[in-house]
Amino acid sequence: MSEMLAMTVQSGQDPAGPEGAAPGPARPQTSAAQGHRTAAADGPGPGSHDATGRVRSWPRPGLAVVALFLVVAAAHAAGTAVVYQFNQLTSAGEEFFPAAGVTVAALLLVPRRWWPVVLVATFASELAADMVVGEVAVTAIGSALANTAEPLLGAALVLYAVGGCPQLSRRRDLVAFVLGAAVAGPVLGALIGTTATRFTHPHSPFFLVFARWWTGNALGVLIVGSVIVAWLTRDSSPVRPRYALLEGGLLAVATCLITWLVFWRWHPALAYLALVSLGWAALRFGTHGATAAGAAIAVGAEWATATGHGLFATLSRHHDQALWFLQLYLAVAILGGLVMAAAVAEASRAEAALRASESAERDARLAASEAHAFERNRLSRELHDSISQALFSMTMHASTAQLAMTQAGLDESSPAGRAVARLRTLTAGALAEMRALIFELRPGALAEEGLVSALQRQAAAVSAREDVHIAVDGPGERPDLPLAAEEHCYRIVLEAWHNTVKHAGATAITTTIASDGAAVTIRAADNGCGFDPATVPAGHLGLRTMRERANAIGAAFGMASAPGEGTIIALRVPTSPPVPEPAVPSQPGRQEVSRP
Description:
This protein is an alpha+beta fold. The protein has helices at 2-9, 31-34, 38-41, 61-85, 98-109, 115-132, 137-162, 171-200, 206-232, 244-265, 274-306, 319-407, 415-441, 445-449, 451-466, 483-504, 541-552; strands at 469-473, 508-515, 519-526, 556-561, 567-574, 591-594. Strands 1-2-3-5-4-6 form a six-stranded mixed β-sheet, covered by helices on one side. The two termini are 78 Å apart. Mean pLDDT is 78; it is low at 1-59, 89-93 and 577-596.
């Protein structure tokens, strides 16, 4: 039946679209709601579109009308037959009325222009069924009118609140479905139906019939209507376990077994065990699982109680009252399962949104990094092709001028000679600085040239700028260190040079790099004024930064200094496992500090 209904309801129009706008003012949808309105916008139900997203061709209107009428009428008649199976008459009210769920689901799934077909089919089916079982004409007409007005009001309220066919995996849609289709609609139907029975059964208890009618229709909407709506609408974020087929089979077996034991065999029954299956289905399979498990439990429990089995059959001597107690239990249990399923789906959507946000953030960072690298490369090329070449030419011209002055017999100590010499020195320093800057700008320069070459470039630049002689001595072959370790070592040595130039007043810095196969040792020594390590503040940024970088690569960091004795910085970086910290050569009067 559900497949036929899905075929007939697909028409390419939203139930809340131009032809079937829900009553009330038009309200723009938020971006969060737009995603799950796609199905409603192009025709509700599965299979509304082909692989390219176009609406499929539909049967001719006349054939579609006939098919929809027959499907709804047959489904409503089947739901009504369940009530009569329990020997209940409409005039007494029904504890469970599945046909109510069929009609309201059909109205929610089809466009508004098809609603008259659904309502006429419902009215005709209900009227015929009541007349067949011997109801009085006035009661039968009142019952048919009640069961037609009820889903009409419920569906209209749901569409007004949601803006389209609801997705029960969304809490807002679920609340609208429950309040509109399972509460407000059945209240109207119960009021009309109970009033109609007063004409032929004036002594029937009005409020009892009203309560039974309302709860029976509401349960029919919760059980049958929710199953149809949940399974015939496309969920934008369905919950699916990894091994869905295997786990679904186990869940089905467990649900049937628990239902049989709880509602048929055990005395007294442990009714709350049915909640285990509902919770399992809601947590692992979302709304689809919760509605399917709820329907299975409801069918088994209804049949057991109606035939005098189980806990609820023993709660009251009156058969109808026992069924009513069961309806209250099932309504609470199924509603709890639906709420849990909606919460799980909301959490799943939030997690998916978080993953998408993190992925977008990673992509943005990568794009920014690539743009940054591209710009640095461009700048390094521009500087090399323009300023660096100009500085090199100036150096050559200064050298040529010095040679010409010597050939002309001019003394180098003359003002002109000193000016040319100073010009050559400044130009050479600027060229060294520019080459060091180009090296820093070029991404991957350290990876291309290695640690020793990079330090030699920086030594030339610092020497020219600060009037400090810096010598870098290292092996011809590149040290066997990871690129990240080379980067940290490079920054540690530059920080040591910076501290020496800024604080030590040194004229020479000697930096050596050596490798013994197990580790690479880097040693930077200066002839500056030195200092007393005990007087250095605990949070000194330069020393703390060097130690943090050493810790990051598992290196041993050591420092030794004394007033008037200069400073030695030593770093031992393991090529594979960490090795002990290097021993810094001590000198008389020199204090040593090292990282434990």
